[in-house]
Design brief:
The protein is α/β, with parallel strands linked by helices. Helix content is 51%, strand content 14%. The protein is built from 18 helices and 13 strands. Strand 9 and strand 10 form a beta hairpin. Helix 9 packs across helix 10. This is CpsD/CapB family tyrosine-protein kinase. InterPro entries: Bact_polysacc_biosynth/exp, P-loop_NTPase. One of its GO terms (cellular component) is plasma membrane. GO terms for molecular function: protein tyrosine kinase activity.
Length: 493
Amino acid sequence: MSSNLSLNLHRIRRYAWLVLLIFVLAVAIGFVLSSGESKYSSKSALTTISQTRAPEQDAYLIQGYVDYFNDPVYQDKLRSDLGIPSDVTLQAKTIASSPLLFIEAVAPQPNSAIDAAGKAAAKFRDGINANVQKIHDQTVAALQAPFNERRAKNQPISEEELIELQRQLNMVISDTSNVLQNFQTDVTAVEEPKGVSAAVGLAGIVGIILGCLAAIAVGSLRGRLDHEYAVEKAIGEKVLLTVPRDKGDGGQRTQRLRQIASVIAMSGPREPAVVAVTSPTRTSTVREVAYAIAESRATQGARVVLVRADFNSAEDDTAESAGKSLKALLSQPKSDEVDAALQTSDVANLRVLVAGGPLADPFAAFVPGRINGLLDELKQGADLIVIDAAPILTAADAGTICSAADATILVLARDRESAAAAQKARRMLDQIGAKYFAAVLVEENKQTASKPQPAASEAAVAESDSAAEPDSAPEPDSAAEPDSDSEQTEART
């Protein structure tokens, strides 16, 4: 399946309610239009018979009469002459290879249809026959002209010539070629079938087509990253993985998050390595992805340090007074201070360096030499350092972190992040010299924004939740009860 087709099908499924709405409206309109007032039709039949032509040739002539009668200019004149109202439709029809001509009238009332069909057929017949008679008269006059001239000059005319003239005149007078004759005059009116089923069916098909086009248009105009191909069109590269929303079983989402860690382990930078996780704009999925990478690698036996570097997100501030936070270490780091600031977690081999609360000017604190020195100190006791960085487009310090990292993961919130923001973020990573690794498309869980994050203990987690900054307030839809996957993560932390 092509990428464009896959994207369009996704948008149609996503906006299935819009497709259904337009379908219902189209069916309703089709039903109303097709089940209106009754119509009645009446037909008058005419024919032409010629002794000198085959019936097939007469059929060609009848087809010409049909085209002439159905000409809008002629019908306007016919209506004007006969006083036929505008709600009555007139049409000439024929049967293939037949010399029969049917004049059909359709009107709201049966008497109107009968009257219009009879008058229109008679008017058309008389008009055609009058023209044919004019031709006959001209032919007769042309035959008689030489004899009239000779009589005027007293020139003799033989008996044989008079007999031949009379024979030719008889042939012209008796020729019925092109003459229209009545074939059926006792016309009646019948009620037209409404065809509700056919009309509703056609309206339904049109509604489905219009609904699908509307769904595709709405999805495109929103400009959100709602599919892998939308990301590819925005940043020019395919996504590494798409992480679906947790559906309650805690399976597929967890496996996809672990796959990100596996890809980094197999295809990422050599350990000890620093992996920065960021996003174009603020989204709770960055913290989730960063923790999933750290937890998965720690479970595999790697020594992992998770650095919380987003100072405007909910964080444990209790460690700052003791110097156990990134905020406190942004002065010249020393080995003993760095090691003391790392907090253990419930996951073996995973230690956490919390942010320590908001900074007045994070960019001033993240001096490239200082952050590089801190990372070098962390590498002394870790195989992998995962940095939960601030949004690249809204926090200047995120650029310093990403440029210092050995690989950068760009997290894109599905159906929330805009294509324009993704383009700017990807371009900025190139401009600052960051080692871009891949983009992941993550669908936000309803409870993700308020999900507790790993810290030193369960008590610390509870304290950090109560001290959360306003910027980390849950999204409006985050009030839902956490599912089994979120409870597992909370248990780990």
